[in-house]
Amino acid sequence: MTTAKDIMHTGATWIPAHETLDRAAQLMREHHVGALPISASGEEDRMIGILTDRDIVVGCVAEGRNPAKVTAGDLAQGTPRWIDADADVEAVLEEMQNHQIRRLPVIENKKLVGMISEADLARHLSDDQIADWAEQVYSRTAAG
User: Fold this and answer.
1) pLDDT per residue over 1-14, tens digit each?
2) In what order do the strands lie in the sheet with 35-40?
3) How far apart are CA 75 and CA 139, in angstroms?
4) Is residue 115 a contact partner of residue 33, using CB atoms and an 8 Å limit?
5) Phi, psi of 75 (to 5 degrees)
6) What's the whole-model pTM score?
């Protein structure tokens, strides 16, 4: 059985809720990623959201806000989604499809151990699995 841990990208990095968006953008550049899990300030083990590069652009820059003043926590919304490292690939796909998400943190023993992105899916899944996943995620997104 292929698990979330088998297909994830290791080395995911947290951004504390109190950090500014300009620092988040720097971390994304340094780590070559487009998303960072947001941790509760002072609690690296508790995820309160995920910050994406798009969130920074749309939720801050496009609104004329200063990324040096807006924090990651300011943009944390909704219930963060994640998957256990031992979950099988079908559970990963179902979680991403059901919640229309393109990046999924992987947790093991209550610790962040990696992230699964579209690129990870493309590297590890069959063409049929990818096509089904894309149809489920993108058709719902396009429909509104």
Assistant:
1) 889 999 998 878 88
2) 15-16, 35-40, 43-52
3) 26
4) yes
5) -100, -5
6) 0.81
